[in-house]
Amino acid sequence: MQTNLTFNQTLSGNRRLILKRLLVLRAALLCTVVVALLSFTFLVDVRIHTAAYLLPLVGFGFCGYWVARYRKGASVTDANLLRQLVFDAVFLLVLIYFTGGATNPFIYYLLVLVAISAAIFNSIIGWLFSAGCMLAYTFIMFTDVREHVHHMSSDFQLHLLGMWVNFVGSAVLICFFVSRLATALRDRQIELSKVREETLKNEQLVGIGTLAASTVHALGTPLSTMAVVLGEMQHSYKLGAAKWDASSQNENVELMLGQIERCKKTLSKLSLLSQQQQDGGSLENIVEFSDELREHYLLANPRIMPAIVFNNERNFSEFFIEQSVLFRHAVINLVDNAIQAAVRQVKVCLEVDAKSKMLTIDIEDDGNGLPSDVEEQWGKPVISQKETGMGIGIFLSNSTVEKLGGKVQVKRKPQATQVSIKLPVTWAKPAGEEQV
């Protein structure tokens, strides 16, 4: 059974990356050792134990073995990572033992290994590894002092003792603080992971809510029509056969069947658009987007037909937005809100700023305007100025636009309300034309 030694369970996906970096670090250490041995042998003329020359060969062999395993895609466990550090520590200690012992300054490379163990392993493993390095250093130092006590001055012995105290103190501090930092990073990583999960859930809920709000708006008109027709038929039936006009009732039945078919088409279209939203990744021309918006309201036949216009003379067919059913219905929700608040007219103006690459959609109605407190709380889920409580569509629309990198702003005017949607656009410039 695999034992989890790392400080964080989520580190499992990075074990191969950690192994790769440990192998690179070991290769750099081995190259440094070879250069140092050759330099001391031929330049300084220092006699070095034969075993010291054989150790790099062992190190390169062990390193090559793990490089081969890494390239074959072998799994990497926590125990494998711990073995790498233990091998490096043992290799360095044996090398130092044969090349001057405690007087060799390369012994401080152990602190690098202590820091790595404290960073990637849990605190228990980190402290055990650190304690092992300190005990090994202690053994080497006191062995050297005991063997060469007659050849060392008291000042040099004090120097070695100071090096040992410095090493032990540094190892303890490194292990303590790095372990604490690793724990803090672990907690932060777990917290961010939870936030990402919650964000994904919220995005899914916003998508569902946006489609649901659009469905309510799309089905509201045909259902209201059928309710009126059924009321008239019921009234005629109560008046008796004298008032029952067969031809008129047949027209009413045909009208209701038409409204039912319209509801079916609306639901089918929403289902198809939802599937397209899941596929994602495509772009939509702004002109096509405006045409679809006009077509929607021609079919919906609302109380007030919104006027959809372009504010500048630029060729809008050159600009594209991310194709999103959620954005389309977010705009529809905001336009529907304007229609319900308007007295006589609703105007939808589209404008593109080529320099900032932003599309602006201004939705303006001639209603009574928003109260100041509602303007301050705009876009929050508590807003609902309707008796039916359907104002949640404002929050859903705002969330959808923000998800696509845009923003929604509301401006209160005398006897009017203007809602502005800003969304990034992509400019597909014609061949031979310079982009401004």
From TrEMBL:
Q: Could you tell me the EC number(s) of this protein?
A: 2.7.13.3
Question: Reaction(s) catalyzed by this protein?
Answer: ATP + protein L-histidine = ADP + protein N-phospho-L-histidine
CDD domains, per this entry?
HATPase
A Pfam family annotated for this chain is HATPase_c
Task: Enumerate the Gene3D superfamilies for this protein.
Answer: 1.10.287.130, Histidine kinase-like ATPase, C-terminal domain
Membrane-spanning parts: 23-44, 50-68, 106-137, 158-179
The cellular component terms of Gene Ontology attached to this UniProt record, alphabetical and capped at eight, are:
plasma membrane
**This protein's UniProt keywords:** ATP-binding, Kinase, Membrane, Nucleotide-binding, Transferase, Transmembrane, Transmembrane helix
EC main class here is: transferase
For this protein, the record's InterPro entries field holds: 2C_sensor_his_kinase, HATPase_C_sf, HATPase_dom, His_kinase_dom, Sig_transdc_His_kin-like_C
PROSITE patterns xref list: HIS_KIN (PS50109)
The residues covered by the Histidine kinase domain are: 214-427
Q: What is this protein called?
A: histidine kinase
